[in-house]
Backbone:
């Protein structure tokens, strides 16, 4: 249990939404023998009245969450690879990067982002990630990657980069670590030693609230940031946000730029902060909780109606967020015949908690089930277009932001 706020250490946290007992969302099971003894943890969202941070009330240790079984791969999602390519190009131009100036990626996974920098001719890249298998794949691909928790790798990073680090990046990482203060102290140390810029991407709280994106709540995400709460947290560690922009990554994120000294803030940063005033009110979160409960019931009713009519339903995609949705909505193998995936590390496994078989995506085109529930709803447009082109004839169910059936 987290008795105090993870950012300001106050005891001002109040409950927002209880998603029940949930398994670790990326702990896919290799066989039916593992169903017995599967571990579940409480998942309740809270709001700090003091620093305005939205966070989980209970956070499992990171060595449990990101252990040997962690099988998320950035490169398994074509849309993500394409976005990382565009992002690398923007960062390269924005900071006039030259080969020989290092880009560090914290939580670099399989090296997909850094591979884009290398494709642009920036070969001085270094990744660091605690998950063994993604690191192995990154190094195999030629992206130098340290398999370690970031906070313990600082000395090794400085040795390898030789004070030539220009950009320190952390994409969707700040929400993950269970030692966020130590993490940011280490970032500050690296930034100070190199006069580098810290570029961070976090899933953006307003997108989650207004888009009813309750499935983006899971144990791997201990905190859910607005710009205000990020700014508060960064300043505690000598980092100052001077620019920010909303981006489409991860269903809607905030990209922030910070330095180790106060820097003139951009107009768009000031505008974004102004728009967050409503997020200071607990009523906003209570409305969100009510909307989430209604969304769950709408999805359950639609699936029950289809199954009652004898329809066969499959799932498309098994991203981390799918585990929260499936478990919270009580959707198991009695509802979904199977779930398709492109990630080879997940194919042949069973989903956490709900125990639905994960199969290769090609099966949909052999079976042509009556309906497909799109669990990777943030790329639903691309999926529907691709599946139609490849011969799928059935209907699509998009669960978020509003439950809808697309025939």
Residues:
């Amino acid at each position: 249990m987290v008795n105090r706020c993870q950012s300001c250490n106050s005891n001002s946290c109040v409950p927002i939404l209880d998603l029940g007992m949930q398994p670790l969302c990326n702990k896919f099971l290799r066989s039916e023998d593992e169903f017995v003894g599967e571990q579940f943890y409480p998942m309740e969202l809270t709001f700090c009245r003091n620093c305005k941070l939205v966070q989980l009330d209970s956070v499992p240790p990171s060595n449990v969450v990101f252990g040997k079984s962690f099988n998320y791969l950035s490169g398994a999602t074509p849309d993500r690879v394409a976005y990382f390519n565009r992002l690398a190009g923007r960062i390269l131009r924005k900071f006039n990067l030259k080969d020989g100036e290092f880009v560090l990626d914290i939580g670099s996974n399989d090296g997909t982002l850094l591979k884009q920098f290398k494709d642009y001719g920036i070969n001085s890249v270094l990744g660091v990630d605690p998950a063994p298998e993604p690191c192995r794949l990154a190094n195999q691909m030629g992206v130098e990657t340290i398999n370690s928790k970031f906070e313990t790798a600082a000395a090794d990073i400085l040795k390898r980069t030789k004070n030539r680090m220009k950009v320190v990046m952390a994409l969707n990482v700040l929400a993950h670590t269970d030692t966020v203060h130590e993490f940011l102290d280490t970032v500050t140390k690296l930034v100070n030693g190199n006069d580098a810029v810290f570029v961070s991407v976090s899933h953006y709280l307003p997108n989650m609230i207004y888009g009813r994106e309750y499935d983006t709540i899971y144990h791997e995400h201990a905190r859910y940031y607005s710009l205000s709460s990020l700014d508060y947290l960064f300043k505690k560690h000598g980092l100052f946000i001077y620019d920010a922009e909303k981006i489409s990554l991860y269903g809607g994120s905030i990209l922030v730029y910070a330095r180790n000294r106060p820097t003139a803030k951009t107009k768009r940063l000031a505008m974004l902060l102004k728009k967050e005033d409503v997020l200071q009110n607990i009523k906003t979160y209570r409305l969100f909780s009510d909307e989430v409960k209604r969304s769950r019931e709408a999805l359950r009713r639609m699936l029950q109606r289809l199954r009652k009519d004898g329809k066969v339903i499959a799932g498309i995609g098994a991203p981390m967020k799918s585990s929260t949705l499936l478990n919270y909505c009580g959707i198991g193998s009695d509802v979904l015949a199977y779930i398709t995936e492109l990630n080879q590390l997940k194919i042949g496994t069973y989903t956490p908690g709900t125990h639905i078989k994960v199969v290769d995506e090609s099966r949909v085109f052999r079976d042509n089930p009556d309906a497909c529930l799109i669990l990777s709803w943030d790329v639903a447009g691309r999926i529907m277009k691709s599946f139609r082109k490849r011969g799928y004839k059935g209907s699509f169910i998009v669960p978020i932001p509003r439950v809808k059936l697309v025939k």
